[in-house]
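ok trying this again, last paste got cut off
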Amino acid sequence: MTLAAFLRHLAFAAVLAGLSASTVHMMIGVGILDRPDPRKAHAVPTPKCGGVGVVVAFLAGMFVLYHFADFARLGEPYFRGVILASTGIAAVAFLDDLRDWPFAVKLVAQVLAALLAVGSGLYVRVYRLPYIGPVDVGWLGPPATIAWILFATNAMNFIDGMNGLAAGVGIVTCAFLAFLAEQAGGWFVYAAALLLGAGLVGFLPFNYPRARIFMGDVGSQFVGFVLAVLGVAASRFEGVAISFLLVPLLLSPVLYDVAFTLLRRGLAGEDVTEAHRGHLYQVAARAGMRPTEVAAIYWAMTAWGGVVCLIFVAASSALKPLAALLPLPVLVAWTLVVMLRARRAGLARW
C-alpha cells in the first residue's frame, strides 16, 4: 500500500470517528439511562447506548466500502451475511438496552446472527496446523465457528463493565488487526478493522476517564460480534499458518478473563448465567485499584497480544505454537496480582 492511499484511509477513518462522536453526543441527549444496582460499579444514573455511534460509523463505512472499494470487499454472499448479521445483532442489543431482556433472549439473537454469518459461507473448515498441515474438519466447521462467535461476542459484552476498558481493548485490537491484514493482503479485514476502530475512537472520549455515557449492549455485543467474524475472515490469510489464532491472541486478556471467571464460578457451584462482579478486572477495582489503571492494564495486555501476533506471523511454522503461548505468563501474573490484592482487601468471596 502506498503512503498516499494509507493517508486517504486515515482521513476517511477520521470522518467516521467524527460521525461516531456526534452520534454518541446525540445519544447522551436522548437520555436512555443505566440505573445503579449492586452488581454495577456506577453510583448515579448514567446514559447508555453510546455504542450506537460505533454501529452508525461502521455501517456508514461499510456502505462506502460496498459501493466504492471493490478491492476490499468479500464475495457477495459473505459481505451481505456479515452486514445483515452485525446489523441484526446491533438492533436486538439496542432493544435489550431499552427493555433489559433475560440472557436467554440475547443468546437466541446471537445464535441467529451467527447462523446468518455462517450460513453465508463464512466459517472455518480447513485449519492449517504446524507439523501436520491442512486439516479439514468437515461438518464440525460451522458449529465450531458459531461457538467461537458466541464466546467472543459475550466476552466483549461481559468485559464492558468499566470506563474505557472494552472500547480501549477494541481500538488496540483493531489497530493491530488492520496492520496484520494489510501485511497479509487481507483487504476486507484491513478495511473493516479500520472502520470499527474509527467508531470506537469517536466513542472513547465520552467514556474515559469519566463516563458521560456507557457503550451499552448495542456497542459491546456489536464490537464482539464483528471482531469474532473478522477472526474467521483472518483464518483465510494466505501464507500465515494457523492464522485463525490471530484475533484470539489479540483478545487474549478479554477471553482469558471471561474463561477464568466462568471456570472459577462453575467449580464453586455458582450460576454462571447470573449477574455478578467477579471478573478479574472487577475484583481488581473492588480491591482498591483505580478503574483508569485497570483499563490501562488491559489495553497494555492487548497491545502485548498484538506484539505476540507480530512474533507469531514472523515465526517459522515449527515455532508458532510456542509463540502463541507468550500471552499466558502475563495473564497468569495478572491473575496472581488480583488474587493477592483481593486477599489483602478481605475479599474472601469474589
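PB: full thing came through this time. The longest helix spans residues 3-30.
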